[in-house]
Design a protein that fits this description.
By secondary structure, this protein is mainly beta. Helix content is 10%, strand content 43%.
Length: 168
């Protein structure tokens, strides 16, 4: 499948991604707002909430030679479309396709996002190869903190998510 290369970036007003996307779609522009779930704690409660992957920005698909792209700047929720020399600045071909390939049920998965605390994994690479460990934490950068049982004791180690696989 050929990547769709006519994607551009529009800056939105604070927390205005959904409003901007709605109003742009009313003008027959195709938009994309990649979302992730993030952990939010408030008043001793922890919950997972939906947030834009790129807060303050949305992606707009258009052909600048045909579309009335300047209308984007006057759209409710939009601050401006990113430009270069008076023309919309196209993003790197394949970028949106790569994001969409990482989606599971409409949410972009980030490195480490497939792992959760308490999950059992096997180490595939490094000095702890073939050892089994329990995940203590996983971050967006793909780092996993593992609790490993070695030589009758417990060791905490930080590994990259590509160095382990889920057990079971």
């Amino acid at each position: 499948m050929k990547p769709n290369t006519n994607w551009y970036v529009a800056a939105t007003k604070p927390n205005g991604e959904s409003i901007a996307a709605f109003n742009l779609e009313q003008q027959n522009f195709t938009t994309y707002v990649p979302r992730i779930t993030v952990r939010q704690s408030h008043a001793r409660r922890i919950e997972m909430v939906l947030r834009p992957l790129f807060p303050g920005y949305i992606f707009v698909h258009l052909d600048p030679a045909v579309a009335r792209w300047r209308a984007i700047n006057g759209t409710i929720g939009v601050r401006y479309i990113l430009e270069n020399d008076g023309r919309p600045q196209r993003i790197r071909p394949g970028f949106i396709d790569a994001l969409k390939e990482r989606e599971i049920e409409g949410l972009v998965t980030l490195p480490g996002a497939g792992y959760v605390p308490g999950q059992i994994v096997e180490v595939l690479d490094g000095p702890f190869t073939n050892h089994i460990g329990k995940i203590l934490s996983a971050d967006k950068a793909g780092r996993l903190r593992l609790l490993l049982e070695l030589l009758g004791g417990e060791v905490v180690s930080t590994l990259s998510d590509h160095m382990v696989k889920k057990v079971g």
